[in-house]
Design brief:
By secondary structure, this protein is of the alpha+beta class. The chain folds into two domains: about 10-40; about 50-145. The chain is about 45% helix and about 20% strand. The chain has five helices and six strands, in the order E-E-E-E-E-H-H-E-H-H-H. It has helices spanning about 65-75, 80-95, 105-120, 120-130, 135-145, and strands at about 10-20, 25-30, 35-40, 50, 60, 100-105. It has a three-stranded antiparallel β-sheet with strand order 1-2-3, with no helix packed on it. It has a three-stranded mixed β-sheet with strand order 5-4-6. It is elongated and about 75 Å long.
């Protein structure tokens, strides 16, 4: 770690503690060049894959956007926020464990539909009817039969 005061490359860790929030490691360091002390924080970085949209553009994965679309499908349905949060966590876990840097938006949509199907069939049909953009009634009927 480079010293912020003198830019010396050699520093020594004097003390290590977990932060009060528990989401970081706090380290007190001493520069071996100028003998000044400073604090650094070490946090884990979770990198979700970028979402590749149908037009080829890439956007950062946004759990808030995911939540909004799920809440819309679940409007006036007897589903708790905890169930929605758990579903979003499962989707994020699947994306993290996929090991890919990019994921097609269609894959995210399929993961959402799978979770909605588990939680609430009506919300699943609502989401699928918009997401799959049915062109005719027969395709929609088939979706309902499949459930």
């Amino acid at each position: 770690m480079r010293c912020p005061y003198c830019s010396h490359d050699d520093t020594q860790v004097v003390e290590t503690r977990e932060s009060e929030e528990g989401d970081a490691i706090r380290r007190r360091r001493r520069c071996l060049g100028c003998d000044k002390r400073f604090t650094t924080y070490e946090r884990s970085e979770i990198s979700l894959p970028a979402v590749v949209k149908k037009d080829g553009s890439r956007v950062e994965f946004d759990p808030a956007k995911l939540r909004a679309s799920m809440i819309l499908a679940l409007r006036k349905r007897p589903v708790s926020i905890e169930q929605v949060d758990s579903a979003i966590e499962r989707i994020q876990d699947k994306l993290l464990t996929s090991g890919t840097r990019e994921v097609p938006s269609a894959r995210v949509g399929e993961l959402v539909m799978r979770e909605l199907k588990r939680i609430d069939k009506v919300a699943y049909v609502r989401f699928a009817s918009v997401y799959r953009q049915f062109e005719d009634v027969d395709a929609f009927r088939q979706l309902i039969r499949d459930i």
